[in-house]
């Protein structure tokens, strides 16, 4: 039987945030809420790429530092980063200092701008894989939740075709969960029906 954290009378939440207040707030207020703002979607995709190989709480604790280091994730600014800026970021202890991921963020910003120039919003591009709707799964246990799906594989392939990196099917699935394209709160979590 998975452990759930009680949140009040007759309420439980998913077990994965544990008792860390930052993680609990993220679960209760952000994770799984449908997001449609282009810049916010871009930020979340980039942070999910940085999370690869790490725990999400590590990224969450560094999120404010990431926002400062990467100009609030404004793609037009990031797309202009040069070698000197990359070297500066490699010295920033407030973020994950992974050269491939930092350089990938610059390429992703350029791919993002190319996408917008084609006349499509990032929101429309990202949500097309579910026809603009949230997939509401019905898992009773966290271990039943898959690491990827046909939709995340399609998203990964399409993003890569547009020049994006650090967007494999598993990263895309975590991203889809985070931005509410998929509702993977377990069914007895109080957020399951709310999002």
Describe the 3D structure:
This protein has 195 residues and is mainly α. The protein has a single domain, classed as Hypothetical protein, domain 2 (Endonuclease III, domain 1), CATH 1.10.340. It is built from ten helices and four strands, in the order E-E-H-H-H-H-H-H-H-E-H-H-E-H. A two-stranded antiparallel sheet has the order 1-2. A hairpin with a 2-residue loop joins strand 1 and strand 2 (11-13). Helix 2 (38-51) packs antiparallel against helix 6 (99-117). The chain is globular and about 50 Å long. The mean pLDDT is 95.
Number of helices: 10
User: What is the C-level CATH assignment?
Assistant: Mainly Alpha
- Structural class category: mainly alpha
Mean pLDDT figure: 95
The percentage helix is 40-55%
Strand order of the largest sheet: 1-2
Query: Strand-and-helix sequence, N→C?
Result: EEHHHHHHHEHHEH
Report the CATH topology name: Endonuclease III, domain 1
Strand content range: 5-15%
Characterize the overall form.
globular
Record field, number of beta strands: 4
- Uncertain segments of ≥5 residues (pLDDT<50)? none
**Largest sheet, described in full?**
2 strands, antiparallel
C-alpha Rg, in Å?
17 Å
Distance between the termini: 24 Å
**CATH superfamily membership, which one?**
Hypothetical protein, domain 2
């Amino acid at each position: 039987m998975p452990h759930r954290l009680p949140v009040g009378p007759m309420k439980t939440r998913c077990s994965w945030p544990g008792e860390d207040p930052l993680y609990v707030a993220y679960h209760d207020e952000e994770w799984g809420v449908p997001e449609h703002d282009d810049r916010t979607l871009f930020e979340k995709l980039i942070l999910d790429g940085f999370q690869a190989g790490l725990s999400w709480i590590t990224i969450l604790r560094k999120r404010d530092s990431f926002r400062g280091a990467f100009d609030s994730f404004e793609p037009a600014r990031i797309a202009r980063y040069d070698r000197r800026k990359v070297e500066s970021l490699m010295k920033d202890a407030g973020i994950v200092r992974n050269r491939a991921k930092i350089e990938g963020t610059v390429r992703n910003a350029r791919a993002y701008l190319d996408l917008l120039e084609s006349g499509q919003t990032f929101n429309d591009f990202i949500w097309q894989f579910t026809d603009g709707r949230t997939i509401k799964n019905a898992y009773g246990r966290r271990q039943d939740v898959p690491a990827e799906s046909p939709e995340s594989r399609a998203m990964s392939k399409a993003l890569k075709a547009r020049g994006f990196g650090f967007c494999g099917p598993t990263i895309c699935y975590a991203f889809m969960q985070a931005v509410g394209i998929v509702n993977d709160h377990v069914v007895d979590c109080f957020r399951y029906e709310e999002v």
